[in-house]
# Entry
Amino acid sequence: MSETKESGLGHYRFEKSCGRETAIETRDSLKRLEGESLVYCGKLGDDPSSEILRALNAIEAGETVSGHRVAIKINLGGGINQVLSSYTDPLVLSAVIDAVRKLGGEPFVCEANMRTLDIDRRMLIRRGIYPILAEKNVDFVNLSEVEPIDFLPLGWKDPIKIPRLLLSADVRILSLPAVKHHWECGVTLSQKNMYGAISERRKSIFHRGGSIDESVAAAARALLPDISIISHRCACAGLGPHFCVPVRFAYVIASTNSLAADIFCCSYLGVDWREVRHLLINGAERVSVGMVEGSTEIDEETAKRAASFAMSPKMIKLIRGILYPQYFVPHRLQYRFIKHTEPLGTLVNKMFFEPFGDVDG
# Structure
């Protein structure tokens, strides 16, 4: 017996069969992102909390936040210890928490386990996140440890597991990624950040068969951010997500349209968004980007610096081919051994990548 009911969020419906519920994507899942969308850009400055609040007010996010729980989805899984540009900036996270509360929201911070990493207390301490949570009395939710629900993207035969919590009617999603070049997906920005919210730890399965772009796009549709804030003291340029030339950024980019935010930020990173497949899958060509009045232009020198380290589409294709075999290593072996190589990743970054940057990180 099958029972169908529409989601109040409008981009999927729930079906229950044999006591098991599945969220099934509907064809209008991305309609609210189409057309002109406004993006705010401002300098992070010496008072990040005030600038983040200004950004949220500029995109009229107050009504979205007020009276709701706000899931701040951070990006830790692809990061390397002591390489600040490879994960969400703790300074920016602190400012976002303050701003959400001033707008009447109840923030909590979340991330899911990755194939080789447990996002636990020790990880939060290493990334500089735990002291902020403790100081501001904010909960952290491991999205791999809450109740999952199957989500079936359009055209897929098999569902992916996503956290039911983020589908709750009283929860709003705020995507707070790092700002990174990515050696398989082109960039890590707001939409790519939501891939990390998939409940499944064994994320290697989404790379097999060359389906990583489709998986990233599906995750961003399943858990479509209500608000995107792309902000960091420095960007991870070069061979991100793990090997980063830290390039000064110190801007705040905000939008209620994650595609618009990503399209805008791609220009800073020197990446043609038309070459970023997960953005194209999700309809980036049907989005036009306008700037909120009072926004700041990213200075040309900053943009040139980041763009100079961007990988060409041919290079990304080559690296994908080189990396592909690792995704067939048994999951237990990946989890058991690869996580112990993080100190080596830190050393490689400090010796061979950080010296070419213009900031520490």
